[in-house]
Design a protein that fits this description.
binds fe (ii) ion, Naphthalene 1,2-dioxygenase Alpha Subunit, Chain A, domain 1, disordered N terminus, binds FE2/S2 (inorganic) cluster, single chain, eight-stranded mixed β-sheet
């Protein structure tokens, strides 16, 4: 992953149509510099083993060397507003209690009783103590030991520290992250490029307007990768091409922990011809959808593009006006790109946040428990809180099983169809990966560089972890930098 040999800046390694940068040149407002193409290290074109998605042995390596050492999005700050509020975060068989221990402090305790190992809590909620339901031993909400009904029989606990073990907690943008590694680099140092770019979008001041958690029959990485490039739209989501510059998309790797891709909306795909500006607007306003979850402002209304204006400029302005009406904030400075485009940032290894001013998507991907072949995807929409009045309550989770489509949830309009198309592919991706004849998959050099990089980072964590295990038998000796 040497950044000294960038992928060529010429057009030969891109789709021959406009680049995303070309589209930004036609924006009606000054575009922030962070939307321009960034770091493009040459990271190779080699095939990758399909067994990375299907083998128990590789999954076990991820269990040992990846998940215990990465920052994982656990919840939102506003999910636990009051002291004592407790939320359970689980992944790959691990369970943490994320607790508001003081007005300005959040801690994450291993959700395991120190007596005989029962889970301390199996439900979220506000608690004044963490009392184990088995024999009644209790801890204060700050994790300190409180009470043992048979304390006389535990001489071995006398004088010792019987506080609950903790994982690390950090926050960014209202998101609470946890990390099991006491020596992991601070979150802020890893995601600095993202945090810098998002300074304009005030994510602390957003609320969760929608939350779906979907079970999918594929490995967690296959699911993650389905949302790391836009060119699958040509065949998977052909209906959105009138307003998506799929092949114009821009991909880059700001650092090893943050990858991005930007896809223009409000312009037709370069694969289409004969699409008029009015066609684009008709498509965007025809997507329908619920008030706070609609993909574009103006959905469900009839709009005529004024002479001399592009659909993109027109729809961005509709978006500004709609968002000002909803929130009371002024968005007159917001670029068309920041109003309309799919600006996807990923935080390694399993989270994606869309940048921009309008209500935006956030994704989280995890294995489904300890299963190699199935995964869990959280789809959330975060909308700006109105300037006046109380913060809207965060939407509760809607859980969807393997065979329950997103379109079974009312009010999501065209967005539901797009997710269902993605989830329609993924079980067949997993089946295909098991059935491969040559044991390999291939990633495109430019437009799938984020996917290749994800694999390279996972390999880096595994290599460091294995080297450490071999050297000392102690995983904690090796550090990822
Ligand atoms: S297992 Fe928790 S009190 Fe016994
Ligand atoms: Fe998709």
């Amino acid at each position: 992953m040497d950044g000294s040999q960038p992928i060529g800046q010429g057009r030969s390694d891109r789709h021959p149509g406009d680049t995303y940068g070309d589209i930004l040149e036609r924006d009606s407002r000054p575009v922030p510099g962070h939307l321009r193409e960034g770091r493009l290290p040459e990271i190779g074109t080699e095939p990758v083993l399909a067994s990375r998605y299907t083998s128990r042995a590789f999954f076990d390596k991820e269990l040992r060397h990846l998940w215990p050492r990465v920052w994982q999005f656990a919840c939102r700050v506003e999910d636990i507003p009051d002291v004592g509020d407790t939320l359970i975060y689980e992944n790959v068989g691990k369970s943490l209690l994320v607790v508001r221990t003081a007005p300005d402090a959040i801690r994450a305790f291993y959700n395991t009783c120190l007596h005989r190992g029962r889970k301390l809590a199996t439900h979220d909620g506000c608690k004044n103590e963490l009392r184990c339901p088995y024999h009644g031993i209790a801890w204060n909400i700050d994790g300190s030991f409180k009470d043992n009904p048979i304390g006389w029989d535990f001489p071995q606990w006398e004088g010792g520290d019987m506080s609950l073990p903790q994982a690390r907690v950090d926050t960014w943008g209202g998101f609470v992250f946890v990390n099991f590694d006491p020596a992991a680099p601070p979150l802020a140092s890893l995601i600095k490029p993202l945090a810098d770019d998002f300074a304009r979008y005030d994510w602390e001041n957003r609320y969760r307007a929608m939350w779906i958690q979907k079970k999918v029959r594929c490995n967690w990485k296959a699911m993650t990768e389905a949302f790391m490039e836009s060119h699958h739209s040509l065949t998977t989501h052909p209906q959105i091409l009138p307003a998506l510059g799929d092949a114009n998309s821009q991909y880059d790797l700001p650092n090893d922990y943050v990858s991005r891709h930007f896809s223009a909306q409000g312009v037709p795909s370069p694969f289409l011809s004969g699409v008029t500006e009015q066609d684009v607007v008709d498509y965007m306003t025809g997507m329908g959808g619920g008030r706070r979850t609609r993909p574009f402002a103006g959905a469900g209304e009839t709009h005529k593009v004024p002479e001399g204006t592009t659909a993109r400029v027109y729809m961005a302005e509709i978006g500004r006006q709609g968002l000002t009406q909803e929130t009371g904030y002024d968005y007159s400075h917001a670029s068309d790109a920041e109003m309309l485009d799919a600006l996807l940032y990923n935080i390694f290894p399993n989270m994606s946040v869309w940048a921009g001013h309008a209500p935006k998507l956030t994704y989280r991907w995890r294995p489904n428990g300890l299963d190699v072949d199935t995964g869990l995807m959280d789809i959330m929409i975060f909308a700006p809180c109105p300037k006046e009045g109380p913060r809207p309550a965060g939407a509760p989770v809607i859980e969807l099983g393997f065979d329950e489509p997103v379109s079974s949830i009312p009010g999501l309009g065209g967005l539901a169809a797009v997710f269902d198309q993605d989830f329609g592919n993924l079980p067949y991706v997993q089946e295909g990966l098991h059935a491969t004849g040559n044991g390999q998959v291939h990633f495109a050099r430019y437009s799938e560089m984020r996917i290749r990089h994800l694999h390279q980072m996972i390999d880096r964590y595994i290599a460091v972890g294995e080297a450490s295990s071999n050297a000392s038998g102690c995983l904690r000796d090796a550090r990822i930098r």
